[in-house]
Specification:
ADF-H domain-containing protein; globular; 147 residues; Severin; alpha+beta; actin-binding
Length: 147
């Protein structure tokens, strides 16, 4: 399917389409580590998932959380670097479904119904996290889930 010159893939579960750029940016994050994070949003008018913002490799977790709107849902992936108890440098790719309590009910339903299908499009997700409040995705929680 092609809308406004972009290749997209229909999401049969929710009727949602995924813009090619979403998968291409994710592959760059996963293989080249070109980005620290990617935030995705649903264009409710065109019913498609698109890239909202990318974070450069030197951006921090605080930079990432600061770009999530306080009253709108988003999907995001974050490439988390950490050191294990055995002193090994590792990284895990987190998929975060951001759905704040203050967002619109329709939006929450749209994001919830599209999440699993969209996540499958991004091959290489290692940890999934659902958050409705910043405290549910604190750096301590991320660290705990990574180990």
């Amino acid at each position: 399917m092609n809308i406004s010159g972009r290749n997209i893939y229909a999401n049969s579960a929710s009727g949602m389409a995924v813009v090619d750029e979403c998968k291409l940016k994710f592959m760059e994050l996963k293989t080249k580590r070109s980005f620290r994070f990617i935030v995705f949003k649903i264009d409710e008018k065109n019913l498609q998932i698109m890239v909202d913002r990318v974070g450069q490799p030197d951006e921090s977790y605080d930079d990432f959380t600061a770009c999530l709107p306080p009253d709108e849902c988003r999907y995001a992936v974050f490439d988390f670097d950490f050191v294990t108890d055995e002193n090994c440098q590792k990284s895990k790719i987190f998929f975060i479904a951001w759905s704040p309590d203050t967002s619109k009910v329709r939006s929450k339903m749209l994001y919830a119904s599209s999440k699993d299908r969209f996540k499958r499009e991004l091959d290489g997700i290692q940890v999934e996290l659902q958050a409705t409040d910043p405290s549910e995705m604190s750096l301590d929680i991320i660290k705990g889930r990574a180990l």
